[in-house]
Amino acid sequence: MNSHILTVTQLTHQIKNLLEGNIPDVWVEGEISNLTVPQSGHAYFTIKDEQSQIKAVLFKSSQRHLKFTLQHGMQVICRGRVSVYEPRGEYQIIVEYVEPKGVGALQKAYEELKASLEKEGIFDRERKKPLPLLPKKIGIVTSPTGAAIRDILRVIRRRHPRMAILIFPVPVQGPESAPAIVEAIGYFNREKNVDVMIVGRGGGSLEDLWAFNEEAVARAIFASRIPVVSAVGHETDYTIADFVADLRAPTPSAAAEMVVESEEHLRELIRSLSSRLVMSIRQELEHRRNMIQHAARLLADPRKRLEQYRQRVDEMLGRLVMGLKHHVRRDRALLTSLTGALDHLNPLAILARGYSVTRKMPAGTIVKDASEVRSGDMLSTKLHKGEVISKAQ
Amino acid sequence: MAEKKFEASLTRLEEIVTELEGGELPLEQSLKLFEEGIKLARVCNARLEEAERKVEILLKDKAGKMTTKPFEEEEA
Asked: Does the interface ipTM go beyond 0.85?
């Protein structure tokens, strides 16, 4: 019976063995609180969530790999082992590795490289080269067997069926990846046999995409005189390569769309420009023609003037004839009246009114005075009609 | 291999069209621009025709020299 009664030490020891034996290595996530770092340099804190908390210690020797400073309230993921501190009967986690939650070590390295390259001006917008509108040949730096190359080729074929493409095959993950990508970019720049390149791969974890976060790749892209379009992973993946590239495509298919303007669209563009060209010159000519016609109307046409003269001559002629006719008519009237006047002066006309002319016979002298006539003279009296012979008494 | 010709031609064509549409030029200049524009459109169209689909992949031979061979797209 006595043997079943344990000392505190024995019990604590059993608990220690139980805990440490069963939970030798564990990942735990939570929030740091009660952080203290005494003279020793070891960091003591508790990791907690809404309901529970656990004591933790990060010995100074384990802090060497730490890329950030522990802070109160920080969300972290810790890897360590559970340990029982016998003098106090407390269990705690001895942390060997800690990283900010959601931001792994790679993430941290990524942020740091990004910050330093950004500071260097490698991401500057004004350093970015424009893409050719219609490349002669497109270089593709990716794995020849992935989904990425298939997607890229499919989209290019759809948008421009006769586009020339040169693939530089590279491993897109693992340690050989980054050097191969650097070599490929260098090759295209030396050979100058493409006008634009797509560098990328399909989606994956941060580790899978790591080559595209390597400084060497970033610098190769930056140094490239040929425009580079990055096409790494999915829409939400941002790699360093994306920031350095002249253009970042969210996916490989999108990269193909950005690099290859649809042939149909280009044709349409040329068509519309051509028709606008023809229309504008037609309008211009039409406008000129109208101007000329207007001006011509203002200018006297010599033929027209001649016509006017001719008309005027005709008119004058007409008036002349009319005038002459009038004249003639008037003259005729005068003549008639003169003739009438003459008629009045004709002595014979007086006879018609009952006057007569008497002459002494046989001399024929006109008798104007009765004393000229003696008794017995023979007289001839001329009447309007006929003549009377008589003897004076 | 700076292939700027197509783009430059297209850009120039756009410039010409805009200028002609402005309609402020002397006739002689308009006609000259029109002629240039027609030529540019022809050049652009010809450039679109001239490309030939060719998908190749680079291979490194034993001497480390790069050679090309046609890429079988169905393989991918």
From this structure: no
